[in-house]
Amino acid sequence: MIKKILVSQPQPASEKSPYFEIAQKHNVELVFRPFFKIVGVTAKEFRKEKVNILDYSAIVFTSRTAVSHFFRLAKEMRITIPEDMKYFTISEVVALYIQKFVVYRKRKVFFGSSGKLPDLITVMAKHKSEKFLIPVSDVHDEHVKDMLADKGLKFKEAVMYRTESNDFKPDEKFDYDMLLFFTSTGVHALKKNFPNFKQDDTRICCYGNAAQKAAEEDGLRVDLAAPTPEMPSITAALDKYLTDNN
Questions:
Q1: Coil, strand, or helix at residue 88?
Q2: Among positive and negative, which fits the CA dihedral 185, 18, 204, 114?
Q3: Residue of 242 and 227 predicted with greater confidence
């Protein structure tokens, strides 16, 4: 019987989140506890990369985190972003987030319709004359470079934030029946925090191929994997799993 589930993400801001509906429906306790945290690189650290932001005519954002740290660094370094700078984002949600930092003009903002990287790269390929700068974490998919190079795009990846383990405290309980992971970093952080962890009856749920691959590499049994055609979201997969197993 699954009674207590650890979700390795921050707690949703909205009370209408499907997670809370699942908790009530299945009478389970959900604990939102990220295994890692995002820390921005300093201006001094960024300068060591020898990247001049103003050498680029377009910025590519794959997340709101990337947006925040790009504009944070620009401000710290007292760089005025040109009004004709173009922005390419993974989705419309990320595109709209840019409004927090600059005047939003649709003619300068482009985004993929599916929220997936190949779709964004297709949009970028229509603007081959641009020089793209891509803010990334210190942990990111290296195969993206190959996808961009295949399209003949001029680009540079620049580390603007990094992922650090959000270590558990000695007195912090770890008595969960199920663990939900979303990234390979989160999975590896489990072994870092609990090197003697034995899975036994603890269910492991992974969202995304990277998390699933990391779990299997660490010798963990993956009991639930998403997305699938039938279960496109982690909450839909979790709801069905609890229905079938509780």
A1: strand
A2: negative
A3: 242
